[in-house]
Design goal:
Layout lengths: L1 H7 L1 H10 L1 H28 L5 H16 L4 H18 L6 H8 L5 H33 L8 H28 L3 H29 L9 H9 L1 H8 L7 H25 L14 H25 L7 H23 L9 H19 L15 E8 L7 E6 L17 H18 L22 H11 L4 E9 L4 E8 L6 H8 L2 H7 L8 E8 L2 E4 L5 H15 L4 H6 L2 E9 L7 E10 L3 H9 L15 E9 L3 E7 L2 H10 L12 E14 L6 E11 L3
Antiparallel strand pairs: 1-3, 2-8, 3-4, 5-6, 5-7, 7-8, 9-10, 9-11, 11-12
Helix pairs in contact: 2-7, 3-4, 3-5, 3-7, 5-7, 5-8, 7-8, 7-12, 8-9, 8-12, 9-10, 9-13, 13-14, 13-15, 14-15, 16-18, 20-22
Length: 703
């Protein structure tokens, strides 16, 4: 029926376009500058660039072409979104003027056909210029002799993706025109339709983070789906992920736009001419706008006020104060807009009270954890695979290794899940400990003793003792991800109040060959290289070394890591760290960003570093000759310390008996003493510039 309407009224579509010819002119200018001109300047710069190797030159040209034609051109996406909003407002603006509505409805054409005439007129005003100048961009690439860097499906994505984004926004805006009687309200309703669901999901995450003690901030599947379907949020939040959306979501987005178009066409035929000039054309639509906006606004203001206040009690005064302020402001503003009358600010108070009651119920449901989110631990028989990341358990490395397109969205690499039942049981035991802890603690609550000082400003021993007693539980966390037998993935961040309670299960994992292989698989990646090595507070850049030297060092490190066990971790300290990264060549399937410790027993690694010319015999910058004085601090909430000069022997004693922060960061069984820490202040002999290094006492809680 739509195609019949279109084919029978081509002259009306052309007339509608001619009446608003300025739309084609503006879009043509924008697309001309964004596409042919933009790609011309980009390729010109790429051809003029000087690269040390020919391969880098090819990579530069290839990247320039991909940025324009792979469907990830942010500028084209933004133009598509703006064009959808503007053209939808322009071609259906007559619906907001009663005289124009009466005129158009007096024409010898059905209302349905008239709707599609204007719809396709607006659509073609953008699509035709876009296709023309997109083709011109391809011609520019050919003219530069870079056609070999273009692939058919790549060009197809670059053409189709922005057009689908435009159609989505444009169709939402047209529906908003049918549902409203004022052009300003139409624009607001368009944005409302495009943003209400993503905003709701963002606030849901905020509430989960506020009330749930085991919430890990994971990328909710609902948020992922909504963001990838709605173009505005996709461009501004997910666009850097490149083709992570894929053709499937593009088709879904187009299908959603088609459903919205059919709804708009049907409502157009039901719309009364008297609706022109009103805020909302259909009475039933008003509560669909008002109540979600009041509730979302109330929750949003509540989270904002709570965050600004810095309060650590989820059900604080500021949370409810913000909720009331948000609800009042938004409800009163909506009433004035709906009535186009300032006096309407005094009306419909019952809807405000009802909305606040709903918000209160939402807060209550989260506070009481009616869904059992924090207490969730699956039965071992329901778990197919499981993974765990425990704070401080980093002896095999800490960082990220996983699929490039999933970077930032997932906590774990998909190949790192454990399947052996003994390991899954150990993970579930740790999770159960965390779930039990979640019932005992207050979210965001940090209890530290208030400092007490004597008359000379010195911290009293009572404060230090209280602080030490509070630290004897050695807190950490455990992020656990389960893949259930039904295929569902569930993730929680369990609080571990006392590491001692988890020692048995942690040792089970450490001694497991499956765990070791999964945790160290990044060392076998063909794209891995070493960026730097830090030893004795000195960082050495290794990435400039030959690939052969790096491979030898990686081999030596892999050999040393096989000998690491629980006993070694309990008796040793970390003497250095290695920074591993992935090759930056485009098209890599994985990202590697791992920092791994060098234990004192890693003789193969340490000896090879020495052979490669890196100084591991001295204290590096913390050499006696480079230090002039030391400051000792006793810290709880305030810093109180005394600065004094050191003799060489005193300096050596401090170095021998204290440790750098990184030395204590990778051994699960050691922690740093937060009561006393030492700041070494020295001057470099070469330039006399002052530097500072922090040292800590070590506490081995597993002894």
């Amino acid at each position: 029926m739509t195609s019949k309407s279109l084919s029978s009224n081509p002259s009306l579509i052309l007339d509608a376009i001619k009446k608003k010819i300025w739309v084609i002119i503006v879009t043509s200018v924008c697309f001309f500058l964004a596409m042919p001109v933009g790609i011309s300047m980009g390729l010109q710069n790429a051809h003029r660039a000087v690269y040390p190797q020919k391969n880098d030159y090819i990579i530069g040209l290839s990247s320039t072409v991909q940025n324009y034609f792979s469907g990830t051109n942010v500028l084209l996406g933004i133009l598509a979104v703006i064009a959808g909003l503007v053209v939808g407002l322009v071609f259906f603006s007559y619906l907001h003027d009663k005289k124009q509505v009466d005129f158009f409805h007096s024409l010898p054409i059905s209302g349905r056909n008239l709707f599609f005439v204007n719809y396709f007129a607006g659509l073609l005003s953008v699509v035709v210029p876009f296709i023309i100048f997109f083709g011109a961009s391809v011609g520019v690439v050919v003219a530069f002799g870079d056609l070999q860097y273009l692939e058919f499906f790549q060009v197809l994505k670059g053409l189709v993706y922005p057009l689908i984004f435009f159609i989505s926004v444009y169709t939402f805006t047209v529906l908003a025109a049918v549902l409203t009687g004022n052009i300003i309200v139409q624009g607001c309703v368009s944005l409302y339709g495009l943003m209400v669901f993503p905003v709701a999901v963002i606030e849901l995450q905020g509430l989960m983070s506020l009330f749930f003690k085991t919430y890990d901030g994971a990328f909710l599947w609902l948020q992922e789906v909504i963001f990838k379907i709605l173009p505005i949020f996709y461009y501004f939040m997910n666009y850097p992920d490149g083709d992570s959306v894929g053709w499937g979501y593009a088709v879904i987005r187009l299908a959603v736009a088609l459903v919205v178009l059919m709804a708009a066409a049907w409502l157009y035929t039901k719309r009364q001419g008297e609706s022109a000039g009103k805020a909302i054309a259909f009475s039933w639509f008003k509560p669909l706008v008002k109540y979600p906006l009041i509730i979302l606004g109330s929750v949003g203001f509540a989270l904002l006020f709570y965050t600004i206040s810095g309060d650590d009690n989820p059900l604080s005064f500021w949370l409810f104060f913000g909720a009331i302020i948000g609800a009042v402001l938004i409800s009163r503003l909506l009433e004035m807009i709906f009535a186009f009358d300032v006096k309407a600010i005094k009306t419909h108070w019952l809807s405000l009270v009802a909305s606040l009651a709903v918000v209160g119920c939402i807060f209550g449901a989260f506070a009481l954890d009616l869904g059992g989110y924090d207490s969730y631990v699956p039965n071992i028989d329901d778990v197919a695979e499981a993974n765990i990341k425990i704070g401080g358990l980093s002896m095999y490395g800490d960082g990220y290794y996983g699929s490039a397109k999933d970077y930032g969205l997932n906590t774990f690499n998909g190949n790192s899940y454990l399947q052996e039942k003994e390991n899954i049981k150990a993970i579930i035991n740790i999770a159960q400990n965390g779930a039990d802890n979640a019932k005992k603690i207050e979210v965001n609550k940090q209890v530290r003793p208030e400092p007490r000082y004597d008359t000379k400003g010195k911290l009293k021993e009572e404060t230090i003792t209280n602080f030490v007693n509070n630290k004897t539980k050695y807190e950490t966390y455990a992020v656990v991800s389960y893949i259930l037998n039904n295929g569902k993935t569930v993730t929680r961040n369990y609080p571990i109040i006392n590491k001692v309670e988890t020692v048995k299960d942690v040792k089970t994992l450490i001694n497991s060959e499956e765990y070791r292989q999964k945790a160290t698989q990044y060392l076998n990646d063909k794209d891995i290289h070493i960026d730097s090595v830090t030893y004795a507070d000195t960082m050495y850049s290794i990435y400039k070394d030959s690939l052969g030297s790096q491979r030898k060092l990686i081999t030596a490190y892999k050999k040393d890591i096989q000998g690491l066990n629980v006993e070694a971790m309990g008796d040793e300290t970390v003497v250095g760290v290695i920074q591993f990264n992935g090759d930056e060549n485009p098209g890599n399937s994985t990202d590697i960003n791992m920092t791994a410790p060098i234990f004192k027993s890693y003789t193969n690694t340490l000896n090879l570093l020495k052979k490669l010319g890196y100084d591991i015999e001295t204290y590096g910058t913390l050499n006696v000759a480079n230090i002039s004085k030391i400051t000792k601090f006793m810290e709880v909430k305030a810093i109180v310390g005394t600065e004094y000069d050191l003799t060489q022997k005193e300096f050596a004693d401090v170095i021998d008996n204290t440790f750098s922060d990184y030395q204590l960061a990778y051994n699960y069984f050691t922690v740093k003493d937060d009561v006393y820490n030492y700041t070494l202040i020295g001057a470099m002999p070469v330039n006399n510039l002052e530097f500072t290094a922090w040292r800590y006492n070590l506490v081995n809680w597993n002894k």
